[in-house]
Design goal:
single chain; 337 residues; alpha/beta; Peroxisomal Thiolase, Chain A, domain 1; 2 domains; five-stranded mixed sheet; four-stranded mixed sheet; 13 strands; 25% strand; globular
């Protein structure tokens, strides 16, 4: 029997400090119009000293619990699917989030798929809850401040200039048909697995040391990455979105809303066009930037606030992260029949 798993609550948190496109011009040497209109960076949130990955994820989780009207002690499992650039290295951030919340009856672990993480975490949480009757509430939480790792003077990392900071959380409930999670799909192109790594590169330096656990994110082979993604990214996004929907027994034409990772405007528009949606059936995160696997929780919130998601709608959450993985999951919003 397929046990229904629903979304009981959603929360987000973003640091109060904001950096605008105008403020990024000098650091990036990119005109403000290009930053805003092509790269989709109207503004982004920047983490303060107290905005650790677990602190931001915790604040988002508190919102999700409040929305669902449940106590922390009712949570059975906490899964962190946020950034690996976290409070400490070689460390379980999920345990800290669990402790912060007071979820004393839960266990916790991390799941890491970079910016493809949210749909995969939703699918893992759903599958575990269907297999284990003791998992009544599972909390998925994520935080990211990976913009700290981007050298804005390094044009090789230009596609990461949209990174922002924040936290997101989604609370799952067993035996619930409210905002029911359906089916998922993912695909990885491992040939891109080492195209983005952490280096010791300093600004305007040609002496990068690949693979060190300090420094900045860098692109090891920009030409290969650009060519490979140019040839495959649209196809892979379309594939996982289509598969996630069709596995649920619905046609792609039934999808009413897409919540997707922030990216440059032209590619975002192309994806919508390819799957048969309009900008009125999605949200573009140009006032937040790309906040790793927080984007999908934020997209649902904004979609609801803007009246773009309605009861009964079939929606899809999609993401893609370096490695390179594309992921998507279908959700039936509101009460399922």
């Amino acid at each position: 029997m397929d046990i229904p798993i629903g979304i009981a609550g959603i929360g987000t948190y973003f640091p109060p400090t904001i950096e605008t496109a105008a403020q990024l011009v000098e650091q990036t040497a990119i005109p403000e119009a290009v930053l805003r209109e092509k790269m989709g960076i109207v503004q982004r949130h920047v983490a303060g000293d107290d905005d650790s990955v677990t602190a931001m994820a915790t604040k988002a989780a508190e919102q999700a619990l409040e929305q669902a009207n449940i106590a922390p002690a009712q949570i059975n499992l906490v899964i962190s699917h946020g950034s690996e650039y976290k409070d400490h290295l070689v460390w379980n951030a999920a345990a800290k989030i669990q402790h912060n919340l007071g979820a004393i009856n839960a266990y916790s672990f991390e799941l890491y798929a970079l910016c493809a993480g949210a749909p995969i975490a939703l699918n893992v949480g759903r599958s575990m809850m269907q297999a284990d009757p003791s998992l009544e509430y599972v909390l998925l939480a994520a935080g990211s401040r990976e913009n700290d790792l981007v050298n804005l003077a390094n044009q090789r990392s230009r596609f990461m200039f949209n990174f922002g900071a924040g936290g997101g959380a989604i609370l799952l409930q067993r035996n619930s048909t409210h905002n029911q999670i359906l089916t998922a799909s993912a695909i990885t192109d491992g040939s891109l697995s080492e195209t983005v790594v952490l280096t010791r590169e300093a600004a305007n330096s040609d002496e990068a040391v690949i693979g060190e656990l300090v420094g900045r994110l860098d692109v090891t082979d920009p030409d290969y990455m650009a060519d490979r993604l140019g040839a495959n990214s649209l196809e892979n996004f379309t594939r996982v979105i289509t598969e996630a929907v069709e596995k649920s027994g619905a046609p792609l034409s039934e999808v009413k809303f897409l919540g997707i990772t922030h990216m440059k405007r032209s590619f975002y528009d192309l994806i919508l066009q390819t799957i048969g949606l309009t900008p009125e059936q999605s949200v573009y995160l140009d006032h937040y930037g790309h906040v790793q696997s927080v984007d999908q929780a934020l997209a649902i919130q904004l979609g609801l606030e803007q009246g773009k998601i309605h009861p009964g709608d079939l929606i899809v959450l999609a993401g893609a992260g370096t490695g390179y993985t594309w992921s998507a999951i279908a959700v039936r919003w509101g009460e399922s029949a």
